[in-house]
Amino acid sequence: RVKMSAEEILVRAVELGQNFCLYFDELECDALCKEKTLHRVLRNVNSQLLVVRPDLNVAAFEDVTDQEMQSGKGMHFSIHCYKTTTPLAGMPVAFSVQVENKSYYMCCERECGEMIVRFKEGEVPKEIPGESNIIFFKKTFTSCSSKAFKFEYSMEQGMFLAFEEEGYLRKLILKKLSKDEVDETMKMSL
Question: pTM, whole model, 2 decimals?
Answer without folding.
Answer: 0.80
